[in-house]
């Protein structure tokens, strides 16, 4: 809440967000004053500001506060209009600010992307574990690395950590799973290669890496697989079982499906058969036992791994474990492999998220992606707030008796909504209507819909719309077009309202007809 | 995953039902005071999230968490073991409902689904608003 106070005080100095009030994420009380403004952006900015204050080790809070809204706005602007509808007013004012502020703070995605690591959130923490950071950075890089560059990986790997007990090189490290004490390792194994940037636990990483070093020393070495299985299953529950929903220790193949989605089914099959031939340091995390053994062959490198694995002898299959193969030049320590498996899973999910979040296709690196995702979710939540606020004012006047009609036609037909009532009368040309139509929305917004909305039409709308079912044939893209229309409305200025009124229908009609 | 259209339909129907219920509670005249407006707004927002969570059902962790919040039950315990595996997802877990109790991998899953549902919900609300405003301003 300190940030709230700070934001409130800083707010008058913010040129960009004119009358935005920095309030708690709960609805700002003065929203109605900013009827046409992005009130909710303040909420998002608040949270963004908070996160920004926490994460970058940067600068004075005031700087961050002033920076946040601009950053947020810019991020919104930069991304697709899909969720930019509330950015009308901030665009112009903040774009210029953003450039400078962004440069000032050095809030660069590129900065965070170094080595593909998460940017260490607190600069003060960095000096504490230089060796680890370097090593972890490389390890992180390796996980994302395609298999073709094993040779390159060999050298750098040897450099940073002389005390590193990891065995280098290919080794068919037979699933040495569990010399280690599982209970501890379950927590630490995940940690060992954790990037120093992991928020909230950089120190833990440091400590744990030390202990892991010791354990790794013990762990290195080929051991029988059977004992491993038993222990692995014991470990299973403690681990991120949630990640592997419904997988049971007994099923070697089932869990593999989880990774299979990535498209490595072939490898999976192979690997189950020959678990021991690869460096199956099954992860201490129970995931190991559940995934197929090649899962660590990252998604990006199915081919390389296959060749290598195929060349190995055929050992008795160890189905219960996720047999992870160490890549060439990578540590074959069970911890690192387990870590790699985890990381690859996570990057797989991040890729999926990347598709969901608009405008993230060019972004690389987990840190930036995460930021984008967080921004996106926050903006969506803000939109929900904003729209609910508007609906709240509109609500008493809304005739939800048309809701049945809405649900049917909104979702199935195009132009069902905007064709209410006046469709038969509208013969205006459609294309010119688009510009005026946004104005309609804009006029509604400033007036808080309270006065502008009269509902006499609703009476006839159901009948008219019923008659107007024929455009329902065109189901596709209705929502998209509506989106575009709405966004146009939100992003363009409004012509006179008289035009708007007439313009409201034809766009809907236009969509329906072609 | 879920077909976006079916998801939207489900969300829309639930949300509209919730809004209808809300409507009866609200006075037909515009709210006089700011407090009233805030209250209404909060009610609508709660309706939006509640309908979203109930439409999704208890299949998803985030919807479960949301429903838990709605019903006033205490939040799920944060699993301490998850903190180690966070990879900097701490902010995300604060944003996505129920994020504290999940590990990174499932957190990302939940986030993806949550985003999908949020997008659909926003679309629906916008469409409702648009339809109502357009219908009213036609004349």
Task: Describe the fold and architecture.
Chain A: Residues 204-217, 280-294 have a biased composition (Basic and acidic residues). Chain A: This is Transcription factor bHLH49-like isoform X2. Chain A: Residues 330-380 form the BHLH domain. The complex is a heterodimer of chains A (514) and B (139). Chain A is mainly alpha-helical and 514 residues long. Chain A is built from 21 helices and no strands. Chain A has helices spanning 2-10, 39-54, 61-78, 88-105, 109-112, 130-144, 150-158, 182-192, 202-219, 225-235, 253-260, 265-273, 287-290, 302-311, 334-356, 366-394, 403-412, 436-444, 461-467, 478-491, 497-512. Chain A is elongated. With 139 residues, chain B is mostly helical. Chain B is built from 6 helices and no strands. Chain B has helices at residues 4-25, 34-56, 61-71, 80-83, 90-95, 104-137. The radius of gyration of chain B is 17 Å and the shape is globular. The N and C termini of chain B lie far apart (42 Å). The model of chain B has no long low-confidence stretch (mean pLDDT 75). At the A-B interface, helix 2, helix 8, helix 15, helix 16 and helix 17 of A face helix 1, helix 2, helix 4, helix 5 and helix 6 of B.
């Amino acid at each position: 809440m300190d940030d709230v106070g700070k934001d409130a005080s800083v707010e008058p100095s913010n040129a960009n967000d004119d009358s935005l009030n920095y309030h708690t994420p709960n609805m700002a009380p003065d929203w109605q004053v900013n009827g046409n403004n992005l009130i909710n952006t303040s909420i998002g900015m608040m949270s963004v500001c908070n996160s920004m204050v926490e994460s970058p080790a940067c600068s004075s809070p005031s700087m961050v506060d002033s920076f946040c809204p601009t950053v947020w706005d810019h991020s919104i602007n930069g991304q697709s209009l899909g969720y930019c509808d509330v950015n009308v007013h901030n665009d112009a004012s903040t774009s210029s600010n953003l450039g400078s502020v962004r440069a000032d703070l050095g809030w660069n995605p590129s900065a965070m992307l170094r080595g593909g690591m998460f940017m260490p959130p607190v600069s003060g923490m960095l000096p504490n574990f230089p060796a680890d950071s370097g090593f972890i950075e490389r390890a992180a890089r390796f996980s994302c690395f395609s298999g073709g560059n094993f040779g390159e990986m060999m050298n750098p790997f040897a450099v940073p950590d002389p005390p590193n007990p990891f065995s280098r090189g290919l080794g068919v490290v037979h699933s040495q799973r569990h010399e280690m004490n599982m209970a501890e390792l379950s927590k630490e194994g995940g940690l060992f290669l954790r990037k120093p940037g992991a928020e909230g636990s950089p120190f833990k990483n440091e400590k744990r890496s030390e202990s892991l070093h010791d354990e790794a020393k013990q762990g290195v070495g080929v051991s029988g697989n059977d004992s491993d299985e038993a222990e692995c299953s014991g470990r299973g529950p403690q681990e991120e079982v949630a990640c592997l929903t419904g997988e049971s220790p007994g099923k070697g193949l089932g869990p593999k499906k989880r990774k299979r989605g990535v498209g490595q089914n072939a490898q999976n099959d192979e690997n189950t058969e020959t678990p021991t031939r690869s460096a199956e340091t099954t992860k201490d995390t129970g995931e190991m036992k559940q995934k197929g053994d090649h899962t660590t062959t990252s998604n990006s490198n199915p081919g390389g791994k296959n060749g290598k694995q195929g060349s190995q002898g055929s050992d008795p299959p160890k189905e219960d474990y996720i047999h992870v193969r160490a890549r060439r030049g990578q540590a074959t320590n069970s911890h690192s492999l387990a870590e790699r498996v985890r990381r690859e899973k996570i990057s797989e999910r991040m890729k999926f998220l990347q598709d969901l979040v608009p405008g993230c296709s060019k972004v690389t690196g987990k840190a930036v992606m995460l930021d984008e995702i967080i921004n996106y979710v926050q903006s969506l939540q803000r939109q929900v707030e904003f729209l609910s606020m508007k609906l709240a004012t509109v609500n008493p006047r809304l005739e939800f008796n048309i809701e049945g009609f809405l649900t049917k036609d909104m979702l199935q037909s195009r132009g069902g909504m905007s064709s209410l009532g006046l469709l038969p009368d509208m013969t205006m040309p459609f294309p010119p209507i688009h510009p005026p139509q946004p104005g309609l929305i804009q006029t509604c917004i400033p007036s808080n819909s309270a006065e502008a909305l009269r509902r006499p039409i609703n009476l006839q709308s159901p009948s008219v719309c019923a008659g107007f079912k024929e455009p329902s044939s065109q189901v596709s893209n209705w929502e998209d077009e509506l989106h575009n229309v709405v966004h146009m409305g939100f992003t363009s200025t409004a012509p006179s309202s008289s035009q708007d009124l007439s313009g409201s229908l034809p766009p809907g009609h236009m969509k329906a007809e072609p | 995953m879920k077909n976006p259209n079916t998801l939207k339909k489900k969300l829309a129907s639930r949300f509209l039902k919730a809004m209808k219920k809300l409507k009866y509670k609200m006075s037909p005249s515009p709210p006089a005071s700011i407090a009233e407006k805030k209250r209404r707004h909060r009610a609508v927002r709660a309706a939006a999230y509640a309908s979203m969570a109930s439409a999704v059902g208890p299949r998803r962790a985030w919807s479960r968490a949301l429903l838990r919040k709605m019903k006033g039950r205490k939040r799920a315990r944060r699993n301490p073991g998850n903190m180690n595996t966070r990879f900097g997802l701490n902010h995300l877990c604060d944003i996505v409902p129920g994020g504290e109790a999940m590990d990174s991998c499932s957190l990302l899953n939940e986030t993806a689904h949550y985003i999908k549902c949020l997008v659909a919900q926003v679309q629906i609300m916008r469409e409702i608003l648009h339809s109502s405003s357009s219908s009213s301003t036609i004349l």
